[in-house]
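Hey team,

Filing this mostly as a record. A colleague (T.K.) asked me to run one chain through the structure pipeline before their review meeting, and I want the input and output archived in the tracker in case anyone asks later how it was produced. No errors, nothing strange. Just documentation.

Input sequence:
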Amino acid sequence: MKFFDFKTVIVTPLIKLVLKHPNIMKTKIFMKAMVYFPDKISKSYDKKIQESKTDYKAPISEGLENININPEKILDLGTGTGVTALLAARKFPKAEVIGIDQSKNMVEISKKKAEREGLNNIKFKIDDASDLSCNDDEFDLLVTSNAPIYLSEASRILRHGGNFLVAFSFSGKALLNLEEDIIEFIQEHGFKLLKLSKVKEGAFILVDKM
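Output structure:
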């Protein structure tokens, strides 16, 4: 091991902590951070992605290729600047795609990007992934990338037999090492693992609602 292997020493235990104690993501300080920081970085976010050596889109793009259902309604949780929602809208042009985020600035940027690309099957709105305004069993595909995951809400709004695609552009090896913990975590909320795959520096997790 290197003198200080950040992914091994910090990221893996952190992911494991969240898997074992998901309510951490519902604390007041965490929820405030999920509004404050996205608003703060919204204007420079896409530029940083473009300049980064990390292929941000690779895990979500690969994950979308592994979906075997034909979704009619898709929700992108924590859409940010709409990267994942836009990829899903292109992949499934006949589906209705909705991207939600707590950050007003992120939502406005996403709307402008969709308008520039002329995509008419997508819309963006402000909403809270931990307490969604969506109806029960409303969607047949959920997607998210580099965002907090609230499985109880995901299970509520996803139809039986629907898929949930979770992607991270980082810590792919750490996620593979935690496969047993991930399976235990998702089973508690009525999901089963379809595929966990490392893609470049990141990974995607594809699950099915039982």
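Quick notes for T.K.: The domain at 6-209 is CATH 3.40.50.150 (Rossmann fold). Residues 66 and 89 are 15 Å apart (CA to CA).
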